[in-house]
User: Fold these one by one.
Assistant:
Number 1:
Amino acid sequence: MMTQITSAQAAILAINSLALGGLLFLLSSGFSLIFGLMRIPNLMHGSFFMLGAYFGVTLLGWGTNFWLAAVLSGLAVAAIGGVIERLLLRRLEGQVLPQVLLTLGLAFIIADICLMVWTGDPYQPSAPSELRGAVTAFGMFFPLYRLAILGVAVVIAIALWIMVDWTRLGAMIRAGVDDPPIARVVGIKVSQLFTLIFCLGAGLAAFAGVMGAPYLSVYPGLDFEMLPLALIVVILGGAGSLLGTLVGSFIIGFLYNFGQVRFPGLAYVILFLPMLLVLVLRPQGLFGRNVA
Amino acid sequence: MIVKLRYAAIAIALALLATLPMWVGNSYYINIASQFLLFAVFALALNVLVGYAGLVSLGHAGLFAVAGYSGALLLQAGFDHLAAIAAAIVITLVASAVFAALALRSTGIGFLMITLALGQIVWGVAYRWASLTNGDNGVNVSTRPAPFGLSLASAPSFYFATLIVFLLAIASMAVFVRSPFGASLRGTRDQARRMNALGYNVWLIRFLAIVFSGFWTGVAGLLFIYYNQFISPQISALTSSAEVLLMVISGGTATLFGPVAGAAIVVIMKNVVSAYIERWNLVLGVIFVVIISFMPEGLVPGTVRLLRWAWGRLQAKPSAAGERPSERPSERPSEERVP
Amino acid sequence: MTALSVTNLCKQFGGLRVTANVNLAVAPGERRLIIGPNGAGKTTLFNLITGEIAPDSGSIRLFEKDITRVSVHRRPHLGMARTYQIITLFASDTILRNVTLALLGLSRLRWSLLRDLDQQHALIERARAALARVGLAEIADRPLSQTSYGERRRVEIAMALAQDPKVLLLDEPFAGLSIDERRDVRQLLNAIPREVTVVMIEHNTDVALDWAERIMLLHFGEVIVEGTRAEVVANPRTREVYLGH
């Protein structure tokens, strides 16, 4: 089952790992924010990713510019997320477990709706034309689009970091993560913050879905394949920590790609191993604070 | 009076179940009844955790699948039924112990997330490790066991075998609930910190509860493979864990028969819905959302509460001090929300 | 030999020192009172003694036996019992069941999967007796949800006493009680057998001062004053802590 890897293959695997890691970061950052602030592991997160990807596919089918499609999908799903948060989640405020189960129920609903609208056929839209080629360096080909995913992930990571660490909004988020009751007392409108973060998380996931579509394609079941990955990243990296999410995403990205080569078929299972290791040795994650 | 009514209802239900193949002629419906019974065992097993331990697991389909696949693969390898069943149960108990050791690193939401991930691992192995599990093609189970020489090939005979197992499971649960260990487990649900301070080893109690739950989950898994005579990775997917959780929640976690009622509701609905529309996931999701949002204590307790209220109104006399709790308080189901 | 001793106990949360080099030595049968303003670290000290929090450094000894590393759930078996500041009883059970659970915790019976708890008459009678000692025998079968706050405080104490402890830790047993209820609890405390060592945290000093034999004043996690009642009252630092000057 084990295969040897040449250095050229290793380089390609590395690029793929970085791309997957970047994609996972885009997916998991929203999950981490939602979990950190609202204490809810959002079981719809994979669904937001898939829904965003499907929206993107439709928009691209209408001839929309790729980046515009990604942003519009993000906004559409963010809006949907906002509606869900205000109408359904808000009613169960304070009851974390029912909220989690609610997101699970909604995930099933979304999954079937997507099946109805977009059927069971997989879609694989092409990357934007300017990024279809490859860059040659050191005698090897580096697919442009994969590099682009990485680039976008880094940009978003920096933007999120600036927001969380440097803005007033970020301070409110951090206060909400550390101590919700005190945050309320100090005048932070925690409920509005919840809605905002839920929208942001949903939008990021959807944006990630569109970005990932040319790479992973879109198909029924994508939602429940991506959700555990977000879960692993956050358990590994620690909830509420963007740095942890970043590190965790890339660890998983590398583990998946290199694992796939050496243990084809079991790569998916291998992904869970670092999570299990972390659980046994350091339950709060590599960078996390006490949340669960 | 309520107690007598309850016993009467149980007696009637038992009589109906025992004679079911006689008044339901069609083997299609008898099979649905078998399905209901085996999933009722599964739901009862899960309720040991959800209802009595206060631990919600979203990975129980993983244990179910471990039992099913172990049994199916061992049978395929040439083991006889008794050996395959015994070995599968042992394997499931080991898996439960591993689940427990990992999942109990956290409680509450952390526990939920870890069990979800563990269930996904089982799914991943079942789906991707094709050389072991035959992947998506599944594993066939060619024959059903023949205890004491009696064939279980026909629908009614398999139904009766399942009924016997179900009754054993119910009896086991009833004994468990009344036992000191059962009381300890409920104590850890209500006041874990205090229980530790009273001298109970809360971690160990929870661990044993998970293994106990794993045992009956394994039994249900084996009933499943003999029922279907086939197993595929789908049974270990998140949807399966969600379905059995729905059975527990919809029936109500606080009573012994709640999960049974929930199993009936979900199994019947799934079969009815699947016959007409292909949107079972949608229906499952909607039911989830509705129950969580509006009837968190479950359909059964909600109905019981309504009946009690109606009975109380019928009984209302000026001198009576409202509704006196007529059963022993320890028997009375505690009205609680989904834990 | 001391019944309970704590040596150089330290605990820090982040940058905050909640327990700073606390030393405590309680003689067998002594009635010790721990006082101090809010946030002084009294309950944290109890949590360290019962093992719910692990100390950063220092040791805890029960009858000269080092229990610093002993897990929380083993300490009751060694003779330690405690009550809580915030009532944490089993709300969906009767008073009798609450006390029965307390007794069950120390009994091998708690692991039994086959017996019926309601049929364990010996155990249940002991629970009734424990309730009788605190004057709650008549309402033993009442669900906890139908009891008053004062009654619940007494259930807490009954549960702790039912464990037949050698060292009893009472965390603010008078909190939230009316004058009559306080008098009842005070009588209960007076009736505790002499062999039992009692350590009490009480914020409400009027009630507890004359009960105590020795008093320890905590502030910001540190022991400020320790001694007999007369010594503590006379000490100028006591006034400093409470009045700020």
Number 2:
Amino acid sequence: MLIARVVGELTATQKHASHEGRKLLLVQPLNLDGSDRGDAVVAMDAVDAGVGDKVLLVTEGFSAMTAVGRPQSPIDMAIVGFIDHIDLIPGVD
Amino acid sequence: MYLGRVIGCVWATVKNPEMVGQRMLIIQPLTPELQNTGKQLVCLDCTGAGSGELIYYVRGKEASFPFLPAEPPADATVVGIVDTVHLKSPRKISAPAGNRNPTHKKGKRC
């Protein structure tokens, strides 16, 4: 799982039937220091997240499909939680 | 899933039997601001996307799921055509303006 921030929303009318009824969000994976980690991705929302939220992102098919409750569907990224707070042990990178 | 734009298509007469009849598109991955990022790739298509259209695609084993019960050996498939992208701060990007490649007619099939 990755730490990420929601940076935008997508709308798509014509899409695979299994994607209907769920929000599609643009999320930017983050490093622990808050900097960007690679490119932003499109993820399906399983927790009703919104733009600006810091979230937990799964980037693997089985977990993403399970999170949104749609097995055997073409989903490989999903938001599975909000992050309230991150505690790091001081001095450990 | 990843954001991208259709920039072309691929024809192959000899291919895996499970892929017969499937369209193959060349996709340019994009940033949320619709700037090109990374290298182009070939995707199967389950939406009927045309040249210049803004799409999102899925990678990995899940790329073969739209075609069940067939299981084409695909690792990337276009699964949706994007209408609009709303970003937090700078602007709202709507598909009619951003979804058009100047060299291609929107929605034109390859």
